[in-house]
Amino acid sequence: MTPGRRSSTFTRLLRHGFTDPSAAERLLDSGELAPLRDDPVLLEALGATADPDLALHGLVRLLESQAAPAARRELLDTLIAAKPLRDRLLGVLGASAALADHLARHPSDWQALVTYEPRDLHPGVEEFERGLAEAVDPISLRVAYRRCLLSIAARDVCGTTDVHETAAELADLATATLRAALALAVAGAPGDAAVCRLAVIAMGKCGGHELNYVSDVDVIFVAEAAEGADEGKALKSATKLASHMMRICSETTVEGSIWPVDANLRPEGRNGPLVRTLSSHLAYYQRWAKTWEFQALLKARPVAGDATLGQAYVDALEPLVWKAAERENFVADVQKMRRRVVENIPAAEVERELKLGPGGLRDVEFAVQLLQLVHGRTDPSLRSGTTLDALQALAAGGYVGREDAARLDAAYRFLRSMEHRIQLYRLRRTHLVPEAEADLRRLGRSLGLRTDPVAELQREWKRHTGVVRRLHEKLFYRPLLDAVAQLAPGEARLSAEAARERLVALGYADPAAALRHLEALASGVTRKAAIQRTLLPVLLGWFADSADPDAGLLNFRKVSDALGKTPWYLRLLRDEGAAAENLARVLSAGRLAPDLLMRAPEAVALLGDGDGGGLEPRERAPLEQEILAAVRRAGNAEQGVTAARGVRRRELFRTAAGDIVSSYGTETNPAEADQGALVDRVGAAVSDLTAATLAGTLRAVVRDGWGDTLPTRFAIIGMGRFGGHELGYGSDADVLFVHEPQDGVDEREAAQAANKVVAEMRRLLQLPSADPPLLIDADLRPEGKSGPLVRTLNSYEAYYRRWSLVWESQALLRAEPVAGDEDLGRRFTELIDPLRYPERGLGDDAVREIRRLKARMEAERLPRGADPRLHTKLGPGGLSDVEWTVQLIQMRHGWHEPGLRTTRTRDALAHAHAAGLIAAEDAAVLDEAWVLATRVRNAVMLVRGRAGDTFPTEPRELAAVGRALGYGAGHAGDMLDAYRRTTRKARTVVQDLFYADGG
Q1: Helices marked H in 780-843
Q2: Spatial contact of 587 and 551, defined as CB atoms under 8 Å apart
Q3: How far apart are CA 404 and CA 646, in angstroms?
């Protein structure tokens, strides 16, 4: 060959899509292709394939494998003369190395592609059964199966059939193959076949008539005894036949395997019997089956064996399938199953997962199946096992918007086409998009992307997965809005009854009210209504993920009514994804946060910080600065305290919202795993906020009554949870008030001023207003309620020196100055340190007194009728148990262990362990119980809007507490069990540490 000609051929090959023109030239110059070397038709046909290099290589191998020159000549002549064969054969060789291998092993099978009759274009089960009829053993069955597969692939790659039709043909071929395999099993054991009737039920993609090239074929077996046969013996025989049939299809031979037959969708999975009678199946599904098992039965279809028995199976179970949506937590169960699938994908593969990843095939399938189960109860037209047929029926019935359905249909077809072509190459079961450039190029070209196959493929793939991500959940909610909106003429809408069904399935207790809210929010032609129609489908999904969707939607309507005319509100929700999800979580998680928000709805802006910083609690110093500045601007004390309480309400909302969002997690940020960190964050935030509010109130009262200087130095000492930085949302502020007359001021005048300050602070902080009151509790003062509200430092010193009881010393363990004169607060701390950390520790009498007091408190204060095991404060292993145990250690050892001199329970516990005073395991048990009990109390306040020490008894409230603590729908019982288990372990430790005689 002359250099010029070589250069010309080389260029032509490049132009026709060859990536290795030199190798292609050598193959074209080989003896097998000599007659066609200069035939432009061949080069054109090769260039039309997905991988011209692969196609040419496969063609040469096929020609080489022809046994005789006449056979080779026949192939070449047909290749040139018959365009249908040329396109089919080269198309397969350019798309599938595995089928090229099959043709090289079985060189005459190419003739299966020659015929081009109308009946060959869309074969069904009967045609495939004829194609497999000559198979007499597993090996010949595999060869015949591949021959049939060859014809399916040829029609697929040439565009004769679309992806929907190809999947149906693959399912029909699987049906024919299962029948042939069962026939071989029966022929091998006629005695077993004689005593039983066995039916094979296809499930999954085979049952749905939408199979892949390479996939497990999911089946369920049902059997009955033949007339006069013993049932036990019949089941054993049927099990032998079923097992043999599975082996025939699954085992690897010299011709490879066909595909695995998977029977794990049967009742009890792999732990259950392989074969059951119809009555046994029915009993299981009536009593034990989970929601996902009914979802799987959507695709059940009898395919082999006893057709009458198979149909009886489907007829018996179908009514149960269409009742599945009536099960409690139905939607939550289905969505949880979907999330679990995604979570189990290896992180390195998520972005390449066509089937299971976000925006993948499974998202479309789950969304369609969910809608089928909800509405198929009353509309038989929806009862198709085929995804695309079901999607079309849903659109026709108005259950899904036509435009959304069309976009999902296109995305599903594209993704399934990708999946088919990826599997076809090696005939291997995979759903991962390849990473190699050559594989991506072949894949792109096989889908008709020829200009820049790799870039175009990546672009189209991402576009379609993006469509699915946006639509798959919205698909469930958007038609609810269409049901109450004005639609274009001819557009089908969800009927009122269908909308009610869907809302009930989502967990709405009052679907009629929910539809009224949707109508109020989304009807009309205003820009506001248009934005609401965009937001609501997603918000409805988040509301449905809560324990009280009704409250979420109602609260959203209230906020929208209050803020709907402000330009920033809907823009915030539309443009900042975090804001909308955060708002949905906050509005449906309970009463406290929505109540705080309704009093000043503009606080919704706190939810819009994309990185979550808007919900981070603020530090004490800037909080106090803001409150003091507001007090300075106010005209009088009442106005100043009103401003301080407004800041407190806003910051309480910030803290509660952050707690809820961190507990629930969002699509971008998982739930906070460290429960202790959540508790510490809330405790510190509410305690700092309370201290700043008291400081501002003190400043307002002093300024209003005395100007810049009070006649007496004045300090507020935090006690109890306040002093320990452990306040909850519903906690009072436990305090002591201490004062010291200014130089030259009469003690009586100073005392009057101090008492007036306290009285005015308490009054102003409890005035009826839109802001929650702050209750001040001074009952831990000397002499309790009988003693004076305010004492001088000298008076405290005299009392504690002469009259102090052991419980008062214990209470002072939590004392910490929180507001007022810093020097006076410091000197009060110095005064009480010897009391709370007595030198040489506690005597035996004092220890006995503490134990006696604790026993009396548990006996007298536990509410009548309350279950002690579920009382977070006084119950066994609860807050009191842990705190008194830690405080006893502090009073015994604080004098020589500086780390124990802290007002914070968890810090003291950690230092006790570090000092060797408590074993690591015991410290961990106590810490876990204390954190859990505190979380429960906070959750109860968030849910009910009022404080409580026990779990709610109302089911929705209990479920909401469970959601706040990380328990999914239907798992409130698990939460209670976990609480009892945790506190039981803590009680055992408390008995060892608190009641032990050692020290």
Answers
A1: 793-802, 806-811, 822-836
A2: yes
A3: 45
| Confidence class for position 612, pLDDT limits 50, 70, 90 | very low
Q: In this structure, how many other beta carbons lie within 10 angstroms of the beta carbon of residue 191?
A: 8
Q: With bands split at pLDDT 50, 70 and 90, how would you rate the model's confidence at 118?
A: low
3-state secondary structure 240-296: HHHHHHHHHHHCCECCECCCCEECCCCCCHHHCCCEECHHHHHHHHHHCCCHHHHHH
Residue 292: name the closest of 224, 235, 373, 349 by CA. 373
Distance separating alpha carbons of residues 614 and 577, to the nearest angstrom? 14
- Please name the residue that has the structure tokens 């790799």: 454
Comparing 631 with 343, which gets the higher pLDDT? 631
Is residue 245 within 8 Å of residue 217, measured between CB atoms?
Answer: no
712-718 and 816-820: which strand pairing?
A: antiparallel
Which conformational region is residue 95 in: left (phi greater than 0), alpha (psi within -120 to 50 degrees), or beta? alpha
The candidate with the shortest Cα–Cα distance to 989, out of 900, 909, 903, 908, is 909
State the Cα–Cα distance between residues 513 and 211, nearest whole angstrom.
43
Please report which helix (H) or strand (E) contains residue 221, including its range. Answer: strand 217-225
Tell me the C-alpha distance between 86 and 46, whole Å.
Answer: 9
What's the whole-number mean pLDDT along residues 869-882?
94
Spatial separation of the C-alpha atoms in residues 715 and 735, rounded to whole Å: 10
| φ, ψ (nearest 5 deg) of residue 964 | -65, -30
From the list 551, 557, 550, 554, the residue with the least C-alpha distance to 509 is 550
Q: Return all residues near 204 (Cβ < 8 A) that are at least 6 apart.
A: 215, 216, 217, 218, 265, 296, 299
Report the alpha-carbon distance of residue 837 to residue 614 in Å, rounded. Answer: 41
Predicted confidence (pLDDT) at residue 528 exceeds the cutoff of 90: no
Both structure tokens of 629:
């500045």
Give the torsion through C-alpha atoms of 128, 133, 137, 140, to 10 deg.
-60
> 322-337: b or e for each residue (b if 16 or more CB lie within 10 Å)?
bebbebebbbbbbbbe
Q: What are phi and psi of 575, to 5 degrees?
A: -95, -20
Residue with tokens 């759903």: 431
Region of poorest pLDDT, from 272-281, 572-581, 846-855:
572-581
Could you tell me the maximum CA-CA distance found in the chain, to the nearest angstrom? 129
**Residue matched to tokens 């089960």:** 125
Query: 86, 116 in Cβ contact below 8 A?
Result: no
Give the Cα separation of 72 and 77 in Å (integer): 9
Q: Residue 814 and residue 690: Cα distance in Å, rounded? A: 16
pTM: 0.75
| Backbone torsions φ then ψ of 301, nearest 5 degrees | -150, 125
Residue 610: per-residue pLDDT: 46
Least confident of 7-16, 73-82, 331-340, 723-732: 331-340
**Other CB atoms within 10 A of residue 300 CB:** 24
Flag whether pLDDT at 11 surpasses 90. no
Q: Which residue has the tokens 């490049």?
A: 14
Does the pLDDT of residue 1 top 70, yes or no?
no
CA within 13 Å, CB half, 446: 34
Backbone angles phi, psi at 322, to 5 degrees: -85, 0
Can you tell me the mean pLDDT for 757-777? 94
Does the CA dihedral 639-641-643-646 come out positive or negative? negative
Hunting for tokens 């043709």 — which residue is that? 103
> What pLDDT score does 988 carry?
96
Residues 6+ apart with CB under 8 A from 370: 331, 334, 335, 476
User: What is the residue-averaged pLDDT of the chain?
Assistant: 91
* Phi then psi dihedrals of residue 871, to 5 deg: -90, 115
CA distance 911 to 414: 61
**Alpha helices, DSSP H, located in 665-791:** 675-706, 720-723, 747-766
Q: What is the pLDDT of residue 611?
A: 44
Beta strands in 259-401 (DSSP E): 261-262, 275-276, 301-305
